[in-house]
Specification:
Strand content: 15-25%
Largest sheet: 7 strands, mixed
Number of strands: 13
Radius of gyration: 22 Å
Number of domains: 2
Distance between the termini: 38 Å
Shape: elongated
CATH architecture of the largest domain: 3-Layer(aba) Sandwich
Helix content: 40-55%
Length: about 375
């Protein structure tokens, strides 16, 4: 006999399964408000239990994985690399649909994936509010949904954002104290408007607050948040502050700031530029050894992309997967970059090695097809108390 909660869930989902099998369009259901809304109130998730019992696999879905990608920036290309490799290793069809920052196009892409009965969808949202309903359509059809930061998702990927910022801020602080004599003019290139990323910039400010000689001369969000945006913003900052010592932010905007400093002839050997994401161009700068770009806090996108691809395949086999996953911050410097590059080139090898995998990933909660009404529909973070 099935447990009581399993019976209840089967009743809840019966209409969804029948509709999927009979070919009824699921993308814009008239009774959407009656469908499970997932977990909407923030909660703390227990550690993932890899021994949790399996459940039945989804019905009527294609053994396929798709990546709804917001932009072509290198960090997201790394996610694509990991997903494609995992799909190949697990025998899933794979496709990528790039929205190029067009929210309406991305929503339509996901609608088409529902119509094609795609079994697994990973999304990095252009606009999480407009994409959320389309991702719920995938969940209601029985499919796996993995997201980068923003809900809803059956399995949500995030970084401990405050810790990520603190690792970068502490490294900058050590440089200011040890190399710059405790004094520095600092530029913060932020993304405070994105609530999911704001804690990393709170951490940067906290790290610098304890250094009396560190003066934040600019604290601004480039528009757009891109290499070009970082370049344009830094050019403006240099008009009022031509001698900047430290620049911190996401890799792409800091790389733009570096280009502006070089164009103005304002780079120096004792400067400290640091970013977050582990983008390939940032890695190349660090490997030069003489670049002001000294550190990138890696979030190893091919590694977590591969993990999400494995979870999608497990979901389609009826296995229990994590509800959420941390990608742990790793400071990349000239001293450790070789091992990092080896791991990115072989994310499957990282996944197969529990110790190496644990250095990058931490998993929480359990969910499978039978319990998919328990999908996350709130902005989960492991740092939430």
């Amino acid at each position: 006999m099935l447990p009581g909660n399993t019976v209840k869930r089967q009743v809840i989902w019966l209409g969804v399964a029948i509709a999927a099998l009979s070919g009824i369009a699921m993308s814009v259901p008239a009774d959407a408000q009656s469908k499970p809304t997932g977990i909407t109130m923030p909660k703390t998730l227990p550690p993932f239990d890899p021994t949790a019992p399996a459940c039945q696999p989804p019905l009527g879905l294609e053994k396929a994985l798709a990546f709804s990608q917001d932009t072509r920036r290198e960090f997201m290309q790394g996610v694509h690399q990991g997903l494609a490799t995992a799909a190949k290793d697990r025998g899933l069809q794979y496709r990528v649909l790039v929205a190029d920052s067009d929210a309406a196009r991305q929503a339509e892409d996901v609608r088409s994936l529902v119509a094609a009965r795609t079994g697994g969808v990973v999304a990095s949202a252009v606009d999480s509010a407009s994409l959320g309903r389309r991702l719920q359509d995938v969940i209601w059809s029985g499919g796996y949904v993995g997201t980068v930061v923003a809900p809803p998702a059956t399995s949500l990927l995030n970084a401990p954002q405050y810790l990520t910022g603190k690792v970068l801020g502490d490294a900058a602080g050590a440089h200011i104290k040890g190399t710059l004599g405790g004094k520095a003019k600092v530029v913060l290139l932020t993304q405070d408007s994105l609530e999911f990323l704001a804690p990393r910039f709170v951490a940067l400010r906290d790290s610098l607050r304890d250094i009396p000689g560190a003066s934040i001369v600019a604290d601004i969000s480039p528009s757009p948040v891109s290499k070009d945006g970082g370049y344009a913003t830094m050019r403006t900052i240099l008009l009022a502050n031509p001698d900047v010592d430290v620049v911190l932010g996401a890799d792409n905007v800091v790389l733009g700031a570096l280009a502006a400093l070089r164009a103005a002839g304002k780079t120096r050997v004792n400067q400290f530029l640091g970013g977050i994401d582990g983008e390939p161009e940032a890695v190349s700068e660090i490997k030069k050894g003489n670049s002001p770009f000294r550190i990138s806090i890696s979030l190893a996108s091919p590694v977590f992309g591969y993990a999400m691809g494995q979870h999608a395949a497990d979901w389609l086999e009826g296995k229990s997967i994590p509800q959420a996953m941390d990608i742990l911050p790793s400071p990349l410097t000239a001293a450790n970059i070789a091992q990092y590059e080896a791991d990115l080139a072989n994310p499957g090898g990282v996944w197969a090695d529990p110790a190496r995998r644990a250095a990058y990933l931490k998993m929480y909660g359990n969910i499978c097809y039978d319990s998919r009404d328990q999908y996350l529909n709130f902005p989960w973070s492991s740092e939430r108390k």
